[in-house]
Amino acid sequence: MSAKAMDRVATVILMTFAVLIIGLLIGLLGFILTQGWHKLSLDFITSAPDLVNAGGGIGPQLFNSLYLLVLTMIISLPLGLGAGIYMAEYAPDNKFTQFIRISIEVLSSLPSIVVGLFGLLVFVTMTGWGYTLLSGALVLTVFNLPLMVRIIEDAIRNVPQNQKEASLALGITKWKTIISVVLPAALPGIITGTILASGRIFGEAAALLFTAGMSSPDLNFHDPSLSSPTSPLNPLRPAETLAVHIWKVNSEGLTPDARDVADGAAAILVIAVLVFNLSARWFGKWIYRKMTSGA
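Structure tokens predicted for Phosphate transport system permease protein PstA (295 residues):
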């Protein structure tokens, strides 16, 4: 077989796989949205669940998922960014660095249920906090940090070396070069890592069962206090996220319309992930143009 024929065959095979993956994704999204479309309403999104009668909503669970996302990214993004910069720019190539890389790979391959049990022991029991949003955010940080470190490190390493050398040749310090030249150029890759980590936060349930809990207090959205047990902004309260709520409703079946609630919650979760991903990519491109003086 000639080189051109082999190229055509390889192209057809790869295109076939790409079409199958896209078709599978569209079919999965279409099935989830069509099953839960009839439940999508403002009342369903904003009201609290009703464990006795039909017609409850997912308002507190949706808020808990978004709030947990914010808390987790506040903790994990600075840690991942700092670790990625160190591994890409400062870490020497020795046995200690190799040990760090092996540790990152081991952490990234741990099942979420194992990370959840670790969070139960450390963040729930040893700290005495109990089931809290903060415990869930910390265990999700442990869960997502290896992925973020590897992606941020690769994004920084992929910045062309001549850009760094040109900045250093002008007398700019290495740290200033990293902040002003390297990070803006690596921003698309950093945003990709952030989006991937955020998607795992939205969909994670196993680790949160042992840390954030499967129940939420009756929230008073007019109370902004960080210490009130009914305040939605209190990080030291138990919080049932949307993914955990879907599992709980399907497994326990306490409400008369459990299947409808689960279908509607799944549709809301998919839409939230899609909206967040598209918004993050748009915001990342806007920031990239601003930081690189692009048109």
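The first helix runs from residue 3 to 36.
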